[in-house]
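Quick one:
INPUT:
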């Protein structure tokens, strides 16, 4: 059995500090739309319609080389 650890701290309205087993991160946004960046170099953008389960998520890995 695998265990997960994640703790979220609300810093300001719309700004959260996230601590997990593998990284730390910052989450900025409002209900239905947010942007997250973590210490492992991933940026996540999420936009959704609250209450519907419909959302669009885009993940960018800053450590991965982009084709030129």
């Amino acid at each position: 059995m695998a265990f997960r650890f994640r703790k979220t701290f609300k810093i300001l309205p719309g700004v959260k500090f996230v601590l997990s087993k593998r990284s730390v991160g910052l989450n900025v946004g409002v209900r239905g739309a947010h942007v997250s960046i973590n210490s492992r170099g991933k940026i996540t953008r999420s936009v959704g319609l609250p209450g519907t389960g419909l959302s669009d998520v885009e993940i960018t890995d800053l450590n991965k080389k982009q084709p030129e």
